[in-house]
Amino acid sequence: AMEKSYTSMFLLLVAISCALAKDVGKKETKETTAKPKLPQTLSRGWGDQLIWTQTYEEALFRSKHSQKPLMIIHHLDECPHSQALKKAFAEHKDIQKLAEKFILLNLVYETTDKNLSPDGQYVPRILFIDPSLTVRADITGRYSNRLYAYEPSDISLLYSNMQKALKLMKTEL
């Protein structure tokens, strides 16, 4: 009798784990088939229709392999300057269109890579990295004390810097 209850208990566990495994499989296939529509969490409001990378490492890999420039936006959710720039960025139709030509990453935390804070860890700051994985020190905002800072009033400068980043890719590669 004891052996019988062990066997039925074992079969029950197998049945449950099979059912759970099936559910997990279903979720993955649903997400992988509808790839372009990424969860709102990755865009963090910077452009929900754009494709954002999840990590710095993934962004570098994708930039190198697609030969597209990488645009990294450092910001903080509770920072009023970041919020204002995000709003300007998300509402600027030309920037949103141009951004499709970049590998995009927005970070709400600092990375350990010192190349991403060449002149300090402030927000918001936007850096461009070319497919050779070089931070473009020649593409900066208008502030000498925070080279990679942009404000909502600098949105047209950001747009022309995005164009510059794309032009540099073509001429240098």
UniProtKB/TrEMBL annotation:
Q: What UniProt keywords apply to this chain's record, in alphabetical order?
A: Endoplasmic reticulum, Secreted, Signal
Tell me where in or outside the cell this protein is found.
Endoplasmic reticulum; Secreted
Q: Name one GO cellular component term.
A: extracellular region
InterPro entries per record: AGR/TXD (IPR051099), Thioredoxin-like_sf (IPR036249)
Q: What is its main location?
A: endoplasmic reticulum
Presence of the UniProt keyword Hydrolase in the record = no
Q: Which residues form the signal peptide?
A: 1-21
Gene Ontology molecular functions: dystroglycan binding
Q: Which family does it belong to?
A: Belongs to the AGR family.
Q: What protein name does the entry list?
A: AGR2 protein
